[in-house]
Amino acid sequence: MSFFYFISSALAAIWRDRKYSAEKFERLKQDRLQRLVRHATERVPFYTTLYKGLDLDNFKLEDLPPIDKVTMMEKLGDTITDRVVTAEEVLDAARMEDKAMNWIHGKYLVSVTSGTSGQVGYFLNDKCSWQGQRGAVFARTLRDRLTPYQIARFSFGRRYRMAFVIAGGGPYITYQLALDSPKAASLLANIRQYSVLTPLEENIKALNEFRPHYLHGYPTYIESLAYERLAGRANFSPEFISLGSEPFTPVAKQVLKEAFPDSIISETYGASECLVLANQCSQGRMHVNTDYAVIEPVDEEDRPVPAGHASHHVLITNLTNFIQPVIRYRLTDSVMFTGEQCPCGRSMPVIEVQGRTDDTVWLRDKYGVYQAHTPIPFEVLFLDSPGVIKYQLVHEWQNYLRVRFVCDPTYDKKEAAKRLAANFQQYLERHGLEDVVNLDIELVQDIKRPEKGQKLRQIFSKVPSPGGGNITH
Length: 473
Ligand SMILES: [Zn+2]
Description:
With 473 residues, the protein is α/β, with parallel strands linked by helices. Helices cover 32% and strands 24% of the residues.
């Protein structure tokens, strides 16, 4: 059944991508939105209260009050359609050891995220929305590669080798995507996961052996692989590199181009709250997947921002998740609708995304060599610590890290601090840094956003990059 949802969604996503006009996309979006809002109002207590008095036969998207992660998480149990599932069950499923693919009641998959807000969130998909979004991500990421010729190339046992270099081990959505491959898909693709927590040289060795056709990762991490390739230590050369979860800086773009001159490089934009927000086309533009998501660029007061202007944040609506609806939900990414007609001919709007602004942390090992530590592995250390609901890492001065966290009031504070310290200690040991890096674990009441208009930097380095340093992470 899973494979049916996956393949039917992928085929529909390909079909609409190639055939649908702007009007057809708009009609589909309105249809889906009407159904979703009616469902949420009638069956999900969180929205029943929020949309009280709303005329379901005659409303506009702008009439619906925006929400955010804090409000949703405070009422977690009430945000779920199936009234049998409790908030405790969701938290338990997320905290279980070996917990990446725990289906609650055999039906609902929980994903944990901090996204760009510094607040931990739990989001559920049922099998239908999960496989539907997976199929769509697959179809839209590889939109120009899914031709009969390309598919034939990897048939008859010559499988497409796909490598995901990601945060592994826990219920993190990209890891879950890479892990939960339908069995039938394994005839065409050989999918492997590599953890960003593993020392770089081990991953390089494994990737050199695997020689992936397809490589997915975070821009900062793929950038460090690119430096390894330029230094002659990495010898794999994927045909296709997809990037997600972080902004792709001009410097990283340059380095990737130099290191992988024959690769197609493609950005994806998704979140745990909605996997299929936007994907790049062959012209290097990001198109909003208007059949799966609504993205509204807004200012600080949630008022719409016109094309050509960068938003303060966005409101997103996931049109396909009916088990835990996400409607007009604040994501802290700044997005600009360019208003241009893309030369590729697609009618879906073109956007530019300026996502999170976390730093790479440069730590000096006992030999005086600088190691580049990218932001996401640190996030995993926090997310893998039960009881942590908000966090920030500050590289205060060279090799001194302040690990700040807010604890869930129902959780044992000492226990949370102990686990967090152990996670960081283990990470430092794995990189040979335990004797040269100092750590302070600080329990705080809250982690405030900086002045108005600025993003919270969760992984924040006050120490400049050593420049020209030897990247040996
Ligand atoms: Zn295009």
